[in-house]
Design brief:
The structure holds 2 protein chains of 2 kinds. By secondary structure, chain A is an alpha/beta fold. Chain A has 18 helices and 13 strands. Chain A folds into 3 domains: about 170 residues, Rossmann fold, CATH 3.40.50.2300; about 80 residues, no CATH class; about 150 residues, Rossmann fold (3-Layer(aba) Sandwich), CATH 3.40.50. The two termini of chain B are about 20 Å apart. By secondary structure, chain B is an all-alpha fold. The chains are: A alpha/beta, B mainly alpha.
């Protein structure tokens, strides 16, 4: 299997172990697959006048006649067909009516669904993989989702389902529980809040479903609590694998530059991602480690949560620039927020001189298309790439290996690199976005 | 007599008094608050919120509401951006946004007016639908490279930002509509008592359609300004903005049960929230603490407004009792 990522990556202790027969073992571990095949057989066996009976039997519906119905069975009848004096008898008739309707509806639904039998004719069911994204309305998560969908198209033996947690921990929990019910062959999880999702990820592991956590990694400490021992705290959750980018490494790119670039006694503002988000917190920690601890002369004028959002950052920055003190640097935990903050000063003569050169510095993370354009304009000093396409490709590559028994899921432990994007190298990254259609070649109009 | 007049004006303009008091307090708390640039910023930041609030006010006065406005704003905004990028025409982009806003709201009106679905449910559904379409259409990614599209959100006309000028124009139209047209008066009548309004010959279904259509126009316009301000088509933008609009309307004295509300009140409500957010950001108050303070002040402002109005009504009842006694 070739890695199709256009950029370099480093592997941490990856080993590839071929385990013959594991694919069959996986199927054997999921009795629900047999049930599915049974349902399909019933559908294929459908004959006019007989199919409904088969389906009714399959659904556990009793035939009319024989023993009188128990009284409790009239309850659905009463609910769906209320009224009538002899409600038990009427209720039973209504139950039959209701069950017939349900059976026909289910038959229609099953017939409408694409049957996996078609794949079976070609040599076997595809593996069912679910990607649980943290949110569909998050720019990076959306990029990752579309990249995973694109990457999955390369694999004929994988049928991918993508669901979104809408940045809601409760919804994430439900989706992860659903993955057990639906007996996916492998689940890729992008947590919204590591600690909140860790118990549900563990439930997946306990159910025998291989799990890869991605952007961010779920750690054992997310489940057990932080011990203070880095080795223990940074260990990947037992039984899972991970494909991620290192948030500390990403943020350190800008932070190390800033040590040299931010003027003495400079004033900075800090825009943070959502509280509790692993990448948001770790990127902020990296700025403490690599910048603030070494530049104690620097003052943080304002610091607030803009929750990865451009519009929230815009409103914050518009107000902050009225504070009377010149802001020497915008330190943002992602490019989206940096872009919003930059929009707030784009037309401000205190921040952009007459010849268009800015007299402020700005640092982001992610290397999005928008971030690259801002670097090109000279408004964003530097950012670090978090390549969703590469993360997606690695996820699918490892998923297939695990599903085919070529390696164990716990051996999946890969972190993509975070190259710095600055004025010197931005053109090559813009070209990547032009090639994938996200930016237009003339840089102004077409999509 | 003089005291009665004074208390009448105090009660009538209670929300204005709250706003003036906030303005004074904010001026004392930060020397930067009164700077022209800062006040202009507040106005610019409030433009989108006030446009949404006008739409909500029209609906709430007539006894309805719209929870889909944030999503419809995002959908019309990203489609306007796409239209602009495809054609280069600002007029077409604006037209696309307004058309999408109106179309979404006509669906709301259909379910609320014709099928009798509660406005809360119908618009909650549209909230999901519109956001879903916006995300599906863009693949969740921001649309970039907006070119001159940004002028409508960032441009200046003389010393005034263009969005503020647009807002002033819209305010005049909405004020005229509420105070000098039969449609405006019909809204109060429907909101006060829909059956009585229908009995007196008002076509409530028609009014519902017009109200939602106007709400859609305002959401479309707000969407264009929002995207231009952010220099990007943000399918995930304006999440929760329906609450921003509703808060401004309710703080501005509009009754949630319908039949009561003024344009001036809504503008004051929006500025009370705007001043509050601005001063807390200027003072560097943590955003979590901001939420607590904002919530408390909103409740206090509304309580003050309700109390002053209930005093007024109890005085009217007492006066009526006195008159009845004299007879």
């Amino acid at each position: 299997m070739q890695c199709r990522g256009g950029l370099r990556r480093k592997s941490r202790g990856c080993s590839y172990m071929h385990r013959p027969g594991q694919g069959k073992l996986l199927l054997a571990q999921h009795p629900g697959r047999a049930n599915e095949q049974e349902e399909n057989r019933l559908l294929l066996d459908h004959r006019p006048g007989q199919g409904n009976q088969l389906l009714m039997q399959h659904l556990g519906v009793r035939r009319a006649g024989g023993k009188p119905p128990p009284a409790w069975l009239s309850l659905p009848g009463k609910i769906f067909f209320p009224g009538g004096k002899n409600f038990i008898k009427k209720g039973w008739r209504n139950v039959k009516k209701f069950n017939k309707i349900m059976a026909v509806a289910m038959a229609a639904a099953l017939a409408a669904a694409p049957m996996t039998a078609s794949f079976a004719e070609e040599g076997g069911d595809p593996y069912r993989v679910c990607f649980v994204a943290r949110a569909s309305a998050d720019t990076f998560a959306a990029w990752l989702t579309s990249s995973i969908q694109e990457a999955a198209e390369e694999y004929d033996d994988i049928e991918l389902t993508c669901v979104s947690g809408d940045a809601d921990d409760n919804k994430m929990a439900s989706l992860l529980e659903d993955c057990i019910t639906k007996e996916y062959d492998l689940v890729i999880v992008q947590s919204n809040n590591n600690a909140a999702q860790a118990p549900y990820v563990k439930n997946l592991v306990d159910a025998g479903i291989p799990v890869i956590t991605t952007n961010p990694t779920t750690h054992q400490s997310d489940l057990d609590g932080v011990t203070g021992d880095d080795e223990v705290d940074n260990a990947v959750l037992a039984g899972t694998g991970t494909v991620d980018a290192d948030p500390v490494e990403q943020a350190s790119r800008g932070a190390q530059r800033a040590v040299e670039e931010v003027p003495e006694n400079g004033n900075v503002v800090v825009l943070r991602g959502p509280s509790g988000n692993y990448h948001a917190e770790k990127r902020r920690e990296a700025w403490d480690t690599y910048f603030f601890s070494q530049r104690e002369d620097v003052t943080i004028l304002y610091e607030d949560y803009a929750n990865w959002n451009s519009d929230e950052a815009l409103n914050l920055m518009e107000t902050w620039v009225q504070g009377g003190t010149h802001i020497d640097a915008i330190i943002s935990m992602n490019d989206n927020m940096a872009a919003g903050a930059i929009e707030a000063v784009r037309n401000n003569t205190d921040y952009i001189s007459e010849d268009g050169t800015p007299n402020f510095l700005a640092y982001g993370v992610d290397g999005t298309a928008q971030g690259c354009l801002l670097v090109k304009e000279g408004l964003l000093t530097a950012t670090a790439l978090q390549n969703a396409a590469e993360i997606a490709q690695l996820n699918m590559e490892y998923a297939e290996k695990v599903l085919n028994g070529e390696m164990d899921v716990t051996e999946v432990n890969d972190f993509v690199e975070a190259p710095e994007i600055n004025a010197d190298n931005v053109d090559e990254y813009i070209q990547i976005y032009i090639d994938n259609g996200e930016l237009s070649a003339d840089g102004t109009m077409a999509e | 007599m003089k005291n009665d007049k004074l208390s009448y004006y105090l009660q009538k303009f209670s929300i204005l008094i709250v706003l003036a008091a906030m303005f004074l307090v904010c001026s004392c708390l930060s020397p930067y608050f009164l700077k022209t640039n800062n006040l202009m910023n507040i106005a610019r930041q409030l433009c989108v919120g006030i446009l949404i609030a006008y739409g909500e006010m029209i609906l709430i006065v007539s006894g309805f509401l719209d929870l889909s406005v944030g999503s419809v704003l995002a959908l019309s905004g990203v489609l306007a951006v796409s239209a602009y990028k495809a054609t280069g025409s600002m007029a077409l982009a604006l037209l696309a946004a307004l058309a999408v806003g109106v179309a979404c709201n006509l669906f709301n009106a259909l379910f609320v007016g014709n099928f009798g679905v509660p406005a809360f449910i119908a618009t909650l559904g549209m909230q999901q639908v519109a956001r879903g379409i916006a995300l599906y259409y863009t693949g969740g990614a921001n649309i970039l490279q907006l070119g001159k599209f940004v002028n409508i959100g960032q441009g200046m006309v003389g010393i005034l930002p263009l969005p503020v000028l647009i807002l002033i124009g819209v305010t005049v139209v909405i004020w005229y509509m509420f105070n000098h047209t039969s449609y405006g008066r019909n809204l109060y009548a429907i909101g006060g008592n829909r059956k009585a309004a229908e009995a007196s010959g008002i076509n409530s279904i028609r009014s519902i359609y017009i109200s939602y259509a106007i709400n859609g126009l305002l959401a479309g316009l707000a969407g264009v300004i929002f995207m231009a301000r952010n220099n990007a088509g943000l399918p995930n933008g304006a999440i929760g903005y329906e609450m921003t609009g509703l808060t401004a309307v309710i703080v501005g004295g509009t009754s949630f049960t319908g039949g009561v509300g003024t344009v001036m009140g809504t503008v004051c409500g929006a500025f009370i929230i705007g001043f509050l957010e601005n001063i807390m950001n200027l003072l560097g108050v943590n955003s979590y603490v901001q939420s607590v303070i904002q919530g408390l002040i909103i409740v206090l402002a509304v309580a003050f407004d309700i109390r002053s109005k209930s005093k007024k009504s109890s005085k009217v009842i007492m006066a009526a009792d006195d008159n009845a006694g004299k007879k």
